[in-house]
Amino acid sequence: MDADATQPLTAYGFLTAVEQPGGGFYGGYLVLSPQGRPLEFRCTTPVRPSRAQEILYGASLRPYLLGELLGGTLLADATLPVVAVLTDLPDMAQVATIRREPVFVVAAEGVAACSPLAPTPQAASSRELPPFSTKIERPGTTAEACVPAVLAPLAAHVALVEPFERIRAALREAHDVAQETTELHGESRAA
To answer: Which of 33, 51, 71, 181 reaches 20 to 30 Å from 79, CA-CA?
Structure first.
């Protein structure tokens, strides 16, 4: 039987960042199918705050850079809609304030608290987040997995912490390629 072309594709977004030596961040966004296959990948160029930004933003600089600036840009530029966004960086969860999708924070250990940060319509009117707490288990473990219903199709096939490693590896590769290109251009100019 053919797939119904009118049904939207179910996809999940994974959002993280890598801090570069000397300050600044690269952001990465990976969209996966429920089976864990990549559907879209985006990354940013390095973003380094100025000294003036460090002074003016204070403690709010990191959530602004990671969540609103990097995360917001990556999600706005994405072509595929997702049913949920997952991040492994609590500061990046700030993206929930500017997006409609539910945003979940997944801890790096693999078994973690996971909280949607995007309020439900009822909670939005009262300015409170809905109460929520769950555990995320690796597929195939003996412990009973307790995941939000929206993440269950993905969690059945993918350890929810694993895609973040894919993103970080891709970001490191992009950084290395950019650095090699810069070095090659420098050598050709010197010759």
So the answer is: 181
What DSSP string describes the chain?
A: ----TTSPPP-EEEEEEEEPTTS-EEEEEEEE-TTS-EEEEEE---B---HHHHHHHGGGHHHIIIIIIIIHHHHHH-SS--SEEEES-GGGGGGGGT-SS-EEE--TTSS-B--B-SPPHHHHHHT-PPP---B---TT-SSPPB--GGGHHHHTTS-TTHHHHHHHHHHHHHHHHHHHHHHHHHHHHH-
pTM for this model (two decimals):
0.75
The distance from CA 136 to its chain's CA centroid, rounded to whole angstroms, is: 16
Please give the backbone phi and psi of residue 51, each rounded to the nearest 5 degrees, phi first.
-65, -35
> Is 8 within 8 Å of 15 (Cβ atoms)?
no
CB 40 within 8 A of CB 31: yes
How far apart are alpha carbons 50 and 167 in whole angstroms? 26
Question: Which of the four pLDDT bands, split at 50, 70 and 90, describes residue 53?
Answer: very high
